[in-house]
Automatic annotation (TrEMBL):
Source domain of life: Bacteria
Molecular function GO terms recorded: catalytic activity
Residue stretches making up the ABM domain: 9-97
Protein name, per record: ABM domain-containing protein
């Protein structure tokens, strides 16, 4: 992931809970949102459940710079959360990550 021309970084993460772990993943994400919002450089950090698809989640986050995102990902609490998250999600964390680049019409 790299910073956009405007400097900020937008990340979208899609996650699907393992069968029978839907409520556990929702509770896990809910508990992780507020601490992430308080990390330096965070602009937005919003968790969403996909309507009509229990156990499917999307997290939308924006960071002032790539350095802020990297610091968030390297935080001690994140190193502790990753193994727990892997027990709850179907697939890998990396499979669900997308970087968005904003653009505007020329006019």
């Amino acid at each position: 992931m790299t910073a956009t021309s405007t400097g900020y970084v937008t990340v979208v993460w899609d996650a699907k809970a393992k069968a029978g772990r839907e409520a556990d993943l929702k509770a896990f994400i809910t508990a992780a949102v507020t601490p992430s919002r308080n990390d330096p450089g965070n602009i937005d950090y919003e968790a969403h459940e996909v309507e009509g698809r229990p156990g499917e989640f999307v997290i939308y986050e924006r960071w002032e710079t790539r350095a802020h995102l990297d610091a968030h990902l390297a935080a001690p609490r994140m190193r502790e959360l990753v193994p727990q998250m892997l027990e709850l999600i179907d697939g890998s964390i990396e499979d669900g990550i997308r970087l968005l680049r904003p653009f505007r019409p020329a006019h």
